[in-house]
Specification:
Elements: H1 3-25, H2 28-52, H3 55-78, H4 82-103, E1 113-115, E2 122-126, H5 134-137, H6 140-146, E3 150-153, H7 162-171, E4 176-180, H8 183-196, E5 200-203, H9 210-214, E6 232-244, E7 255-257, E8 260-264, H10 265-271, H11 279-291, E9 299-303, E10 306-309, E11 313-318, E12 340-345, H12 350-359, E13 366-371, E14 373-378, E15 382-387, E16 390-395, E17 398-412, H13 427-446
Parallel strand pairs: 2-3, 2-4, 4-5, 5-17
Antiparallel strand pairs: 1-6, 6-7, 6-17, 8-11, 8-15, 9-10, 9-14, 11-12, 12-13, 14-17, 15-16
Helix pairs in contact: 1-4, 1-13, 2-3, 2-12, 4-13, 7-8, 10-11
């Protein structure tokens, strides 16, 4: 089905969703919509109070979060209109899905790649504990050595400087570096590869493998990543750099990040010694004070010309994350845009929390911008920062910058690729697409 007919399906399904309400509920359809919105508002407010209160108030908030949607469903059922609501919601979901699919541009340019020869002296670092033991499960060390790579297996019992291991390998003549491990280790070795302008191979042996996902690699079978050593292509991607305090950019004190650096609530929670033992309990215990600014540093974010004060959470990413799609949350379609992504959350009341839930990226509580440089300052000399999942304490101000095209990444020629994510729904564009393209097609057929 082409984009024109998909847009027409969206318009038809949207009209049918409204028609079902009007035909079977009449003027009561307005009441149905109002009851649904009221349920969402109460649920969002309850979630805010659940996260920002303690004791009896938190218990009542949890009850509200459960009771509000159940009460809405009961009212619909008591009026004999539950099936009407479900059918209408199904049609509306179909309309939005079809509309977004129609707006998706399959011809959008992907990251350019170039053909390369195989590496003569590849050097790989592998973490046997990463990803629950994927290195051993998929025989990654044995397979890499069979392809001519030198492999260093990290010792879980002793801390090893992976960046220094990589630098020694380069001095011995290594012409490619690679890592089978988590994104934090990937970033440290990627920095060395960028420093010496040699290719870098990502082996998806971590737990979440966000970096591998955004490179389009196979996250289920990390052994396929080794094909980059013999049948690979090369991408040029950006790298993020972070430095603390008043140190100059050329001081050598910068740290690379391949995914993101987080500030505020999340960074403060993961710094707690109790977090590893009981994540849920520690988070619920700390959130009330952090979200209401009763504890934690007060941040100020300068992203280009924009200044944002007192946010609860800040995420600075190596290229922007996709928005407008729950499936795209935490995913970047490109790693070569030349811009840092900046997401800032500022929610101080239940009303603002409700607005964030209902409007998402269009709410005033969420700011999404891009910039080449970002500075995060605070009213404290040191703040918690999460850099590619690693918890750090850094002196303020903290500077983040992007180095466009700094890293040569070697990836398999044949790989799953980065899935396309549909853009946010825009009814005006869908209508224009359905009607305008129809006229153009009709004109072509008449000639």
């Amino acid at each position: 089905m082409n984009r024109r007919w998909t847009a027409r399906l969206a318009l038809l399904a949207g009209a049918a969703a409204v028609a079902v309400l009007l035909v079977f509920a009449g003027l009561g359809s307005v009441v149905l919509v109002g009851v649904g919105v009221a349920g969402l508002v109460l649920t969002a407010a309850g979630m805010w109070w659940l996260l920002t209160r303690r004791g009896r108030t938190r218990a009542l908030a949890a009850l509200l979060v459960i009771a509000a949607p159940l009460a809405v469903l009961w009212l619909y059922a008591a009026a004999g209109l539950l099936w009407v609501v479900l059918v209408s919601l199904g049609l509306w979901t179909l309309a939005v899905s079809a509309g977004r699919a129609a707006l998706a541009d399959d011809t959008a340019p992907r990251m350019p790649e170039r053909a390369v020869r195989g590496s003569r002296r590849p050097f790989l670092i592998m973490n046997p504990r990463s990803g629950g033991g994927k290195v051993e499960k998929f025989l990654l060390a044995e397979r890499a050595r069979a392809l001519g790579a030198e492999v260093v297996m990290l010792d879980p019992a002793h801390h090893q400087d992976v960046a220094e291991l990589a630098r020694r390998a380069v001095r011995r003549g290594a012409d490619l570096l690679g890592v089978a491990g988590g994104d934090g280790t990937q970033a440290l070795v990627a920095g060395v590869a960028a420093e010496h302008d040699i290719p870098f191979v990502v082996i998806s042996a971590g737990t979440r493998n966000h970096f591998a996902m955004d490179l389009g690699l196979d996250r289920q079978d990390p052994s396929t990543c080794l094909e980059a050593l013999t049948d690979g292509v090369e991408l040029r991607i950006d790298l993020g750099y972070i430095r603390a305090g008043q140190q100059p950019a050329d001081s050598g004190a910068e740290r690379v990040f391949v995914n993101n650096a987080s500030f505020g609530v999340y960074a403060a929670v993961v710094q707690s010694p109790a977090y590893r033992e009981d994540k849920a309990r520690t988070t619920l215990e700390m959130l009330p004070d952090l979200l209401t600014h009763q504890s934690g540093a007060r941040l100020t974010v300068r992203a280009g010309a924009q200044v944002l004060a007192d946010p609860q959470a800040v995420l600075v990413s190596n290229n922007p994350y996709l928005s407008g799609d729950a499936a795209g949350l935490g995913r970047r379609e490109r790693l070569d845009s030349g811009e840092l992504g900046v997401l800032v959350v500022e929610v101080d009341t239940a009303a603002q929390a409700t607005e964030l839930l209902l409007l998402g990226e269009r709410s005033r509580g969420l700011t999404a911008v891009t910039a080449r440089e970002v500075v995060v300052d605070a009213d404290a000399p040191v703040i918690p920062v999460g850099v590619d999942g690693e918890a750090l304490m850094l002196p303020t101000p903290v500077h983040c910058r992007l180095a466009p095209g700094a890293l040569r990444v070697r990836v398999p020629r044949h790989r799953p690729g980065v899935p396309r994510t549909a853009p946010p729904m825009d009814w005006r564009r869908v209508r224009r697409l359905a009607l305008t393209m129809g006229r153009v097609a009709a004109g072509r057929e008449s000639t």
